[in-house]
Structure prediction request, 336 residues.
Amino acid sequence: MQNSLQSPVKNAEPPKLLEQVRGKIRLKHYSIRTEQAYLDWIKRFILHFDKRHPNEMGAVEVEEFLTHLAVERNVAASTQNQAKVPYCFCIKKCLGVELPWLDNVEQAKAPKRLPTVLTKNEVQAGLSRLTGTHWLVASLLYGTGMRILEALRLRVKDIDFERKEILIRDGKGFKDRVTMLPLTLIEPLKTHLGRVKQLHQNDLNDSLGAVYMPQALGLKYPYAARDWIWQYVFPSGNLSQDPRTKDTEAPVMRRHHLQDQSIQRAMRQAVVDAAITKPATPHTLRHSFATHLLESGYDIRTVQELLGHSDVATTMIYTHVLNKGGRGVSSPLDIL
Prediction:
């Protein structure tokens, strides 16, 4: 009689491909937006080839898909190149397959374009058409040089009113940096936080009020999610289901931060109302911040640090949009 302890154990089914990708992305602590973008591109790639498994495809299929995006979908070169990254992540990180043929896949050449920059008068005109939280967020973007999601993901603890500093956590490239807190925004921010604190207290009274915490911190400090200091500076007006718990047995309702689309729409309308004839977006305020600092005489290394650029060459692009040109050269026509 066979001992029950020695009986064969049925192996659990391996996770599906997209579940593997999702797990690897969360292991690396990528943002939820990166996760959604990667999964979307991988789904599109697989569906394009009638649901064939990526293990069965190689350079020919990758090049065919990129060509399809360029010719039939007419996407930009940057989008075409971005589509390749999630697929390569899936193959290398999740399936453990090396890609020696990847270097032979032709890369689309993205054109080098100068950033759109507003003048100081245009910035003032645009901001004057905004009100409330939209005005406060846009003013922070121009006053600090933050990216829009860096501003919206700020927590209460990240603002130091005494030192007049803002700590930006997990910026692009998973880097932290410090930027200035504009003096003109101190009182508006304090007033805004007073309203946010009352909103948080109302959530606590309703047995809610737990904000999303990065996984490691959520495990280490399980009760910190309801603390005031961890709340978003710019919370959403509505509760929503945490997308990370969407497919679990117990979905979690949280108050997420304000969506960037609302800031985008408000900025677009402000540009129209101010009769600004430039395609300005919230990110344009970051470009304007850098350019105006250089115009004021601040050295490029300081601007690089404030923007969070790894390479000063990235910051150098703003020298090309200064009023007097990259090296401060005056036109000979102006000397006549």
